[in-house]
Amino acid sequence: TDPALLRNFCIIAHIDHGKSTLADRMLQLTGVVEQRQMRAQYLDRMDIERERGITIKSQAVRMPWAAGDTPHVLNMIDTPGHVDFTYEVSRSLAACEGCILLVDAAQGIEAQTLANLYLAMENDLTIIPVLNKIDLPAAQPDKFAGELAHLIGCDPGDVLRVSAKTGEGVAELLDEVVRQVPAPVGDADAPARAMIFDSVYDAYRGVVTYVKVVDGKLGRRERIQMMSTGATHELLEIGVNSPEMTPSDGLAVGEVGYLITGVKDVRQSKVGDTVTLQRHGATVPLGGYKDPKPMVFSGLYPIDGSDYPALRDALEKLQLNDAALVYEPETSAALGFGFRVGFLGLLHLEVVRERLEREFGLDLIATAPNVVYQVTMEDGTEHTVTNPSEFPTGKIAEVREPVVRATLIAPSEFIGAIMELCQTRRGTMQGMDYLSEERVELRYTLPLAEIVFDFFDALKSKTRGYASLDYEPTGEQAGALVKVDILLHGDKVDAFSAIVHKDKAYAYGVKMAGKLRELIPRQQFEVPIQAAIGARVIARETVRAMRKDVLSKCYGGDISRKRKLLEKQKEGKKRMKMVGRVEVPQEAFIAALSSD
Ligand code: GTP
Fold first, then answer.
1. How many Cα atoms occupy the beta-carbon half-sphere of 90 within 13 Å?
2. Per UniProt, where does GTP bind (predicted)?
3. Residue 163 CB–ligand 1 contact under 6 Å
4. Which of 155, 196, 227, 575 has the most beta carbons within 10 angstroms of its beta carbon?
5. 590 belongs to an annotated ligand binding site
6. Ligand 1 in contact with 56 (CB < 6 A)?
């Protein structure tokens, strides 16, 4: 296809503002999917995505559209919608020349939309502002057209109005995509360079890699090279999605499509990498490649210890499809054998955990998530800590933690509540802007660790669900951080060690000790529960000793009855874990780990 006739675009929208519905309507209008075959939400393939209403993996669909009399080719690139996947979003955007900024006409702009809009602006995309759901009685298109126009600096009259549900205005929107979005430009005679913006594992075909060709051409049966690693592969198949995979002879400048090389692991085909040809290949990769970096870690343990091999296999399988997922085996005195798993963020963690439980039928315990700490000792040695129980002992010069730049949007009546919350979470205010008279955008830097703990929930309850939040990592900062250990009868319970700010250490210690006192059954002896920083005890509770021996009940009874009772007791012990001399039912650990 002549690049002049190509238009590559994506849709930026907040959850529930109607991106999938609009995408479906476009597929239908362009004849790519017939009405009869129309399956709701064609683009979201995974069950979990559908149920949770989030789009995790992006894909691209090619659609023909004749604007006036000239047939054009539109490539719609689906961007993941959540904060954890910022890098993937940025690569999807980099594959486009324009984007549709889709906003619910009854809701207005939200933090997530704004964050992605900023990314689109950084990538110099043409932005087409669109209000959706104008069929709703509650829609206030005039009001929100003003807000959008103010935000991106256009005329309120330029804001398009559509209903993805009824189809009203959608054909006009496609015409505007052709009119406003620039055609891709590239050098057809230069050595081939294509940018990977998505990489998906398919059980039958292996990894399917989505690319945009920037320069040159990729053809069937050629040998390609991944520029970040130098690895080469044969192109077994190349083609476009329309909407099913359709093989072709090749992809040329500006075109978007898929590659299949037979590799089985998405880490061999990384998002952001540049694909070139092995012979006469390019020497300079396209910019912007980054390795995915896990930001949040959690220990995952099978509730039933015999599921450990199944958990290992499941993680191996998931990693084929998820280059950002990292894990290594870990042992916990309290929880047994498991894995320390690294995630891009909280949502990523939840999605992985849910897939392990649902697709692989595993029952899991997850330890409280923690961020990655950098510790410098006084003798100059450095430690990277992904597990609080491995926090170094000895003379520490400095502890650094990751920080994020957060954007919060809410009705202005909640400004006070949000400022208070961010204050207690060690936030620093960076700025505040009114989007309209009654809606405000607040910008903060916050330690990631403070967001990892129930920040969303606290924000929601303080703003009655009206606030939206987005954040992106911006580096690290030093903090007065200490490790708090929890000891049972003098023995450390590794799963409860936490790294917290020193002002919050006491509260954490008191809370955990209190929780455990409630949950741990009485033993033959008194069990002290202590919270300590190093050797210094900061909180203490006691589980008092059992008053009577179980056996005393059958004092004088016959021996067989006694044996039966002991037998029974052994049964119950199977689910018990020993921490030093103390027996703790596994349920107690699970309950103590679950946030309240
Ligand atoms: P995620 O995939 O979760 O990000 O959501 P989305 O932005 O793709 O939203 P989706 O298309 O799933 O739409 C969310 C809800 O809004 C669904 O219940 C749709 O039926 C509804 N909806 C979408 N567009 C319209 C519209 O134009 N009018 C009305 N009345 N409802 C709409």
1. 18
2. 16-21, 132-135
3. yes
4. 196
5. no
6. no
Q: Pick from 274, 270, 266, 362: which is nearest to 321 by CA?
A: 266
- 568 annotated ligand binder: no
CA-to-CA distance for 112 and 104, rounded, in angstroms? 13
- Cα 124 to Cα 73, 85, 120, 181, 195, distances in angstroms: 21, 20, 6, 11, 17
Tokens, residue 174: 């496609």
Environment class of residue 255 by beta-carbon count within 10 Å: exposed (0-12), middle (13-18) or buried (19+)? buried
SS3 586: helix
DSSP assignments along 14-59, one per residue: -TTSSHHHHHHHHHHHTTSS-TTT--SSSS--SHHHHHHT---S--
Mind spelling out the 3-state secondary structure of 310-368?
HHHHHHHHHHHCCCCCEEEEEEECCCEEEEEEEECCHHHHHHHHHHHHHCCCCCEEECC
Ligand 1, atom 21: nearest CA belongs to which residue?
A: 18
Residue 549 carries which DSSP code?
-
What separation in angstroms does the CA of 463 have from each of 54, 133, 208, 459, 469? 22, 25, 42, 6, 12
511 is in an annotated binding site: no
Give the lowest-confidence range in 405-414, 417-426, 455-464: 455-464
Ligand 1 pocket, 270 CB below 6 A? no
Query: Position 393: which residue type?
Result: T
Residue 18 counted as an annotated binding residue? yes
Quick: pLDDT tens for 220-263: 999 999 998 899 999 999 999 887 888 999 999 999 999 999 88
The amino acid occupying position 551 is: L
Mean pLDDT across 54-75: 77
Beta bridge partners of 299: 340
State whether residue 487 is helix, strand or coil: strand
Over residues 406-417, mean pLDDT: 92
Is 19 touching ligand 1 by the criterion CB < 6 Å? yes
Tell how far the Cα of 281 is from the centroid of ligand 1, in angstroms.
Answer: 44
Q: How confident is the model at residue 52 (pLDDT cuts 50, 70, 90)?
A: very low
Give, for ligand 1, the residue of 12, 15, 20 to mutate: max count of ligand atoms closer than 8 Å to Cβ.
Answer: 20
Which token pair is 472? 């992106």
Record the pTM.
Answer: 0.75
Pair type for strands 126-132 and 160-161: parallel
Any ligand 1 atom below 6 A from CB of 15: yes
Rounded to an integer, what distance in angstroms lies between the CA atom of residue 196 and that of residue 184?
16
- Whole-Å CA distances, 380 to 6, 430, 481: 56, 33, 18
Is 19 flagged in the annotation as binding?
yes
CA of 16 to the centre of ligand 1 (A): 5
